[in-house]
Structures are given as structure tokens and as C-alpha cells.
Amino acid sequence: MDCVKIGELIAKLRKEKNLTQKNIADALGIQSKTVSKWECGLGCPDLSLWPDLSAILDVDMVQLMEGEITSNRPDSGNIDKVRFYVCPNCGNILVSTGSASIFCCGRKLEQIIPMDSVDAIKITVEEIDTDYFISFDHPMTKEHYISFVAYVKSDRVFLNRLYPEQSPTCRFPITKGGKLYVYCVKHGLMVYSEY
Fold first, then answer.
1. Cα dist from 68 to 7, 8, 18, 90, whole Å
2. Among 53, 84, 83, which residue's Cα sits nearest to residue 67?
3. Cα 60 from Cα 58, distance rounded (Å)
4. Which of 38, 78, 112, 162 has the lowest tally of Cβ within 10 angstroms?
């Protein structure tokens, strides 16, 4: 660990949040001179303090320990580069429109890569009023179900969350030329083009 680099980052983040060394020390249950030593590069936080320190500074703990925040490249706004992430711990669904460092439950998430469409779930799409009504040929059991369905078009992502033992159907507004993304917890992400 580079204590000087880490100390400089702690000082920078602390100042961005308008916190004093005493504020951080009080929150961690330590003396303010300890925070001062860190910021001067004369030592690093004890391992037991890293999770709370990263929460106080609102920063990823790994990047804090490295002493460097890696910035994501600016979002180009290209919805065609939409990426989906699912937390293996809590099941949260996260979306980005470009490369990003996505974390949930303390873990860095990897982008879900769409699988070969040969094994895709059979779907039926009907136009009802101003919506697509989509049904899936899927068992929807507790161990094998569709977690989410997303319809991506232009500058929008319409996301439907599905649950085990729920009817495998959803509705989206009709906007021709979009892509449909379907995520099955057992088989992964599938993409259906031009709906």
C-alpha cells in the first residue's frame, strides 16, 4: 500500500464532502491525530476501519485502498451500448449505457453478455392498444425464472422485473425498431431484435 497516495486521496475526498479530520475520527471512533497521520502519509488505516471509512467518504473501498479513483469515461449517450448487470447476492438489476465500474453488495459486477439466440426462449408479441403485450414460453419456477425483460429504443430503456411463479408476460409501449432483452436466471441474457 502506498500510504502517501492513500493519504492524499483521503484528504481530497474529505474536503469534497466538507468534513473535518475530527468528523471522520468521531465517526470511526478514533483520535483526529490518526486521520492527520494518514493524510500526511505517515500510516494507513487499520483493516477494520476500511469499510466504514469508504462509506463515510462515499467511495469504493478497493479504489480507496489503491489510493486512486478510476473515473469512468463520459457516457456518450448511445443507448445501443446498453449494458446490464445483475448482483449475484441480492438480485439487483443495474443498467449503464457505456463502460462503467458497477458495484453492488461490495462486489464488482461484470456485464452480462448476451448468449447465442439459438437457445432463446420462445416469445409471442401482440400489439394491444398502444402497447406490445409479450408472453414467454417459460416455467417461472423458484429455481428457473425470467428475472427481467427490457425494451431498448432510441433514448429509452423500459424495464420490467419478473418474479418466480409470476405469469411470464409483460407490456411495453409500442416504439418500432427496438431490441428486447430477456434475462433468465438459469440461461442468461437473450436479445431479440427489431420489435
1. 10, 9, 20, 28
2. 53
3. 7
4. 78
Q: Which helix (H) or strand (E) holds 189?
A: strand 188-192
In the numeric block, which cell numbers belong to residue 16? 469534497
CA–CA dist 167, 136 (Å, integer): 9
Residue-wise pLDDT for 6-55, tens only, equals: 999 999 999 999 999 999 999 999 999 999 999 999 999 999 999 999 99
Q: Options 3.30.70.3420, 2.60.40.730, 2.60.40.10, 3.30.930.10; which CATH number does 79-192 get? A: 2.60.40.730
Superfamily of 3-66 according to CATH = lambda repressor-like DNA-binding domains (1.10.260.40)
Tally of residues, the chain: 195
Helix (H) or strand (E) holding 25: helix 21-28
Task: Answer whether 0.85 is exceeded by the pTM.
Answer: no
pLDDT band of 118, cuts 50, 70, 90: low
- Terminal alpha carbon distance of the chain: 51
